[in-house]
Please model this.
Amino acid sequence: MATIQHWRLTSGEMIVDLLDSASPHSKTLLAYGHDVDSHTCPSAFADALITSRQNISPKRLESPGPNSSQLAQIFRSAASAPDHGLVRPWRFVVVPTDKRELLAEVFAMALVDRDPSATLEQIETAREKAHRAPFLMLAIARLGTCEPPIPQLERMVSVGAAVQNMLLMAHGQGFGSSLTSGQAMQSPRMRELFSLETGEEAVCFLNLGTVSKRKTQRLHPDVKSFVTTL
Model:
């Protein structure tokens, strides 16, 4: 008997479901009202997954977040990113709920360091940012000396690919996600909290959780605006 796994990839009026039955050849992707076989046309599923992902504000992410098995799948997707020279130019640090206050203090004090006249309200807002998403993780780029000597720019591309892989995997699992950064990323306090070594840079935080309210899908740029032929 067939069952339907709801992937919740909603974009406008598009809803994607994966029809699953006892036969692995009967999986069907239902997108835009059309039946698409996921084996003969895997690109249709990939297109739906990629183009329907949204950046969801941490304020709109609530519990539950990914469980341990889902997180393992998300982390494995990062390991599939392009990695010239196999230098693994990324690492990630999970910030569990019982350590959020440490991060909140860094956000607050980094603000005071930048602006000694910051109000109590502004400081509390900075603190609150550490407590929003159910799952929070820092992405770190490893840009110091490596062997073979892969250029830093190429390594940053690998970091971005690893992050995007995780965002898409989380989206496929039904979670909302976002990337957040800010001036606190460059704070010595941030480097100390996350034990950043020479050559390492805090890039952004990954926020994951269940979407409480989804915003209107943004328009993607026309490919003609960024693709040319030599």
Observations:
- The longest helix spans residues 152-172.
- Strands lie at 3-6, 17-20, 28-31, 34-37, 61-62, 90-94, 135-142, 176-180, 200-211.
- Confidence is low (pLDDT under 50) at residues 1-36.
